[in-house]
Amino acid sequence: MTEDLSPAERYAAARIRAAQEATALAPFREMYEFDLDPFQIEACQALEAGKGVLVAAPTGSGKTIVGEFAVHLALRQARKCFYTTPIKALSNQKYADLVKRYGAEKVGLLTGDNSVNSEAPIVVMTTEVLRNMLYAGSQSLRGLGYVVMDEVHYLSDRFRGAVWEEVIIHLPESVTLVSLSATVSNAEEFGDWLDTVRGDTEVIVSEERPVPLWQHVLAGRRMYDLFEEESDHGGRGAARREVNPDLLRMARMENSRTYNPRERRRGKMVREADRERERRSRSRIWTPGRPEVIGRLDSEGLLPAITFIFSRAGCEAAVQQCLYAGLRLNDEAGRLRVREIVEERTASIPTEDLHVLGYYEWLEGLERGIAAHHAGMLPTFKEVVEELFVRGLVKAVFATETLALGINMPARSVVLEKLVKWNGEQHADITPGEYTQLTGRAGRRGIDVEGHAVVLWQRGMDPGALAGLAGTRTYPLRSSFKPSYNMAVNLVQQFGRHRSRELLETSFAQFQADRSVVGISRQVQRNEEGLDGYREGMTCHLGDFEEYARLRRDLKDRETDLAKQGAAQRRAQAAASLERLKPGDVIHVPTGKFAGLALVLDPGIPAGRTNGHRGFEQHDGPRPLVLTAERQVKRLASIDFPVPVEALERMRIPKSFNPRSPQSRRDLASALRTKAGHIAPERHRRGRAAAADDREIARLRTALRAHPCHGCDEREDHARWAERYHRLQRDTRQLERRIEGRTNTIARTFDRIHALLTELDYLREDEVTEHGKRLARLYGELDLLASECLRARIWEGLSPAELAACVSALVFEARQSDDAVAPKVPGGAAKVALAEMVRIWGRLDALEEEHRINQAEGVGQREPDLGFAWAAHQWASDRSLDEVLREAEMPAGDFVRWCKQVIDVLGQIAAAAPRENSTVARNARKAVDALLRGVVAYSSVG
After folding, report:
1. Using an 8 Å Cβ cutoff, are 362 and 345 in contact?
2. Which of 357, 385, 674, 887 is least buried, going by the fewest C-beta atoms within 10 A?
3. Parallel, antiparallel, or unpaired: how do β-strands 625-628 and 80-85 relate?
4. Residue 906: its pLDDT value, please?
5. 443-452, 722-731, 774-783, 901-910: which has the minimum mean pLDDT?
6. CA dihedral 565, 571, 574, 576 (to 10 degrees)
7. What phi and psi values does residue 123 have, to the nearest 5 degrees?
8. What is the DSSP string of 413-465?
């Protein structure tokens, strides 16, 4: 090829090659066996040029390569690089990867409860750890050159997302930021914000999957392609994708099935199970069972597979179903290798705990190549499953959606059982973003030619809606940033109140709010131009028509108000007259379907709230039960009586009268007509209209007639323009109020928090008090409650186990609230302290309401949850794992996770508690030691 070039061109090409080889990227590329993708090269070149980068690419596309290049640059420049991840499991995995590449002496790990080589040039950590270091002004930040924020789209998370924005805003300007995100539809908007707060930031978006993804629906024994033509399956083409007509036909066929009268047996409906069996025999459409699905994938060479089931119990049940069905996905050599790895990884677990943890059932599944993966499992067990899956020794994993959060477990196929999941409040359809995240696991780069996403057919499935999920690959990144008490004192301590307010205004949340205001502002501008035109149209040569139009409007509004008042008075008079009715009164119903003569059988329910069959019901007045002259028994409503009603006559109702008997109704109706049929109803005379005597109306009419514009020949034309002007002006004011509500929202929330903290003597304008300095060291959802408990000294004198029980209430949140059953709590001093914590929370809650700090908006202190207090107390009291788990009725993984969170907060309390005349700091450290044993100690690296 070079022979065809001229000497000058060969020289130029050689210079380009030499320049490329002189870059840091050249030796970095040689570290990988595969060539880098264009988006990876572009991002690395931007980094080397000194720019920050935002890389948005699909799951599994290799965007972490860019983060690893930042590590490479930091080592080359003798600077530090912090690699942050949202969860500990990801931190552990990244730590292991980097140790393998650079050696243990150059890599450290910092998570909430673990510290390994923390002063190394490369440190992997959770994002919260970096946030805490920034606020504390840690010495470890010296020499920091790069920060990699993996899974940065986590800032949408409503519980933890604010931490990502805090880090981005507070990092020193000298630090280059590498943001790695899943594909989001507003990457440019996020990039613009990064450009504003971090300086020059390159946005690199890649829509292309490294391994093409095929979408399928498994119904009965057949696997259907979701799309008829899928030349665009890898994101490389532009062909249009049509939903498979076979699937549409199946959906129509299933929806058109109606009840067949022959499906009766001895006059009763056939049982649901029998109908399902008949449906199967008539059709090939059914939802295959879990062992059936795995067997089918195995026979078609589509394993390893991850099946997402949005339930922990469902994951465990799926493994058992496959075992009972006799599925074996490993040969004898694979089985022996699995046992060897498992025994090696779990050697530190005491034998007596193995049975409690379900070790032997778990091992049997692993030996057959089948496993569950969810947050309720022991971290060690989850890590073993991940390792065996990557090694190809576990071929079928049943997982909850937590597995999709960045953990490196790519599969050939991903199966979704349902497209609905429980979101903590209700069963909701999964979003396009969630679908993309879940199916993004399918297709292993460098191993598979293509990946497969399989959705199981469910009754009522809409193939068109599924195609919409599969075709929408992006989702918007929405900020969940809200100021907290800890954030407020840390900001004021470092920057003072005014500068803190300015910093908060630079958040992505405010950036998005301000952007949304731009469109409204443009509409206001257009409206103002329209108002100028309307003002010109209503100009009158005789005088100020705007003033005249205001008089007309005031007159109309006054007449409307008086008419409404009159109608309300008439309704009140009618309701009062109905309340005076008694059984046996003969009345004349003035209007409605049953107008005419009627006998009151029952005066009806009194007005107001009554305890009905649906609980408390609201009624707008009495509803008398009457017998009409036409023999109908009806319950009337207040709408049938627009005017007051009076009894025309009285009649005795026979005790034998039965409103359900036609004969009884006929006899009583006949007696009613005989008794009162000749009486003509008294016509209700409407009183003089209130408007006739209203002084304000008289004044306005006089002013209107006296106005110069009243005599204009074009008065009504001007009036039409004036009405348009008024309506547009009203709409414009509403838009302006919306703009006012959206601007400075974060700063207003900060002001309210500042006011509350000032009232509690944590802040004094720009000064942080001693109480405030203590709060600055307490991170967590209930930071202010923890600080107030320390301040009130309610934990003084508690034993380490009792203190652990109390601190558990600051972190624990039950997965499902059960208000009917009070949680079991330890007795004695711990019980008194827990009750006092709830009382302090009640005082804070009232104070937050007073300062308009709203928990629904993610700001404020939730009620402490005592549901883990007993378990924490028992474990810290050296009780056995078997006893604690049995009494707590909690999976081992949840137990370990909550213990680690309690340990984390205990560490904060030990650092924040007073040193003199206090036992809290010492007992908090003892409580950490008491909790950090057994499964909690050996559960994971971090």
Report:
1. no
2. 674
3. unpaired
4. 92
5. 443-452
6. -80
7. -130, 125
8. EEEES-SEEE-SSSEEEPPHHHHHHHHTTBS-TTT-S-EEEEEE--TT--HHH
Distance CA 84, CA 81 (A): 10
433, HSE (Cβ side, Cα atoms, 13 Å): 14
Mention every residue, 6+ apart, whose C-beta is less than 8 A from residue 198. 52, 168, 171, 173, 177
Question: CA 209, CA 228: separation in Å to the nearest integer?
Answer: 20
Is residue 23 within 8 A of residue 48, CB to CB? The reply is yes
Task: List Cβ neighbours of 795 (8 Å cut-off, separation of 6 or more).
Answer: 789, 803, 806, 833, 920, 923
Amino acid at 898: W
pLDDT digits 0-9 by tens, 329-383 = 888 888 899 999 988 888 888 887 888 888 888 998 999 999 998 878 888 888 8
Q: Across-strand partners of 115?
A: 110
Q: What is the rounded CA–CA span in Å between residue 418 and residue 429?
A: 9
- Hey, is 305 helix, strand or coil? strand
Helix boundaries (H) for 158-283 = 162-170, 187-198, 245-256, 272-282
* pLDDT value of position 380: 83
Contact 397, 407 (CB under 8 A): no
The predicted-structure confidence for 672-719, as pLDDT tens digits, reads as follows 888 888 887 777 666 666 666 678 888 888 888 888 888 888 888 888
Above 60 in pLDDT, residue 262?
Answer: no
Q: Does 267 score more than 60 pLDDT?
A: no
How many other CB atoms are found less than 10 A from the CB of residue 256? 7
pLDDT more than 70, % of the chain: 85
Q: Which candidate, 476, 677, 481, 689, places its Cα nearest to that of 565? A: 689
CA 623/CA 690 separation, integer angstroms:
29
Q: Could you give the C-alpha distances from 898 to 449, 802, 875, 890, in angstroms and in order?
A: 42, 16, 12, 11
At residue 698, the 3 state secondary structure works out as helix
Contacts of residues 275-282 at CB distance under 8 Å and 24 or more positions apart, as own/partner, are: none
CA 844, 850, 855, 858 dihedral sign is negative
Q: What is the DSSP string of 763-797?
A: EETTEE-HHHHHHTT--STTHHHHHHHHHHTTTTT
| pLDDT single digits (tens) 97-131 | 898 888 889 999 987 656 788 889 999 988 888 98
Question: For residues 794 and 920, what is the distance between their CA atoms, to the nearest angstrom?
Answer: 10
d(C-alpha 54, C-alpha 152), whole Å:
9
Straight-line distance from the first to the last Cα atom of the chain, in angstroms, rounded to the nearest whole number: 54
Tokens of 395: 């071929």
Identify whether the C-beta of residue 248 lies closer than 8 Å to the C-beta of residue 464: yes
CA 552, CA 536: separation in Å to the nearest integer?
19
Looking at residue 930, its amino acid is A
CB 750 within 8 A of CB 463: no
Q: What is the token pair recorded at 833?
A: 């302290």
Contact 118, 55 (CB under 8 A): no
Token representation of residue 81:
């690089």
Q: Which residues contact 871 (CB under 8 A, 6 or more apart)?
A: 808, 884, 887, 888, 890, 895, 898
CB 704 within 8 A of CB 710: yes
Q: Phi and psi for 245 in degrees, rounded to 5?
A: -60, -25
In 646-766, the DSSP E strands lie at: 649-650, 763-764
Closest among 32, 90, 91, 96 to 66, alpha carbons compared: 32
- The DSSP output letter for 730 is H
pLDDT reading at 188 higher than 90: no
Is the model's pLDDT at 281 over the cut of 60?
no
Q: Which residue has the higher pLDDT, 806 or 138?
A: 806
Amino acid at 752: R
% of the chain at pLDDT higher than 90: 11
Tokens 């629904």 belong to residue = 856
Nearest alpha carbon to residue 252 among 230, 225, 285: 285
Distance CA 223, CA 247 (A): 10
